[in-house]
């Protein structure tokens, strides 16, 4: 399975109700230092929601239906002009 950064951004827009601009800024900030050749292989090992929840909330048990999501805090959005 290959996951693209576009799929991660689209998941964040759908799941969290954020703008495409904010989702793109979060993805860009997270992967700005990744080498283009290694990024696709790295992303292919996890589903888009794994990356999206991590970029939006940090390390949370998104897969656990009984998790208390009321305690999850949204990470601050990076500047929209981030690389």
Would you kindly provide a written description of the structure presented here, covering whatever features stand out?
This protein has 83 residues and is mostly helical. It has one domain (5-71). It is 47% helix and 0% strand. The protein is globular, with a radius of gyration of 13 Å. The model has no long low-confidence stretch (mean pLDDT 85).
How many domains? The number is 1
Content of β-strand: under 5%
What profile does the largest beta sheet have? none
> What is the CA–CA distance across the termini?
26 Å
The tally of strands reads 0
Please give the count of helices: 4
Catalogue the unreliable spans.
Answer: none
Shape: globular
User: N-to-C SSE series?
Assistant: HHHH
User: Helix content range of the residues, please?
Assistant: 40-55%
Mean pLDDT, all residues: 85
Given helix and strand content, the structural type is: mainly alpha
* Overall radius of gyration: 13 Å
């Amino acid at each position: 399975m290959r996951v693209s950064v576009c799929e991660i951004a689209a998941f964040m827009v759908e799941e969290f109700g954020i703008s495409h601009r904010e989702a793109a800024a979060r993805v860009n900030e997270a992967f700005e230092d990744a080498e283009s050749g290694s990024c696709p292989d790295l992303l292919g090992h996890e589903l888009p929601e794994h990356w999206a929840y991590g970029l939006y909330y940090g390390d949370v048990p998104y897969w656990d239906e009984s998790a208390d999501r009321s305690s999850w805090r949204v990470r601050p959005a990076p500047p929209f002009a981030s690389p």
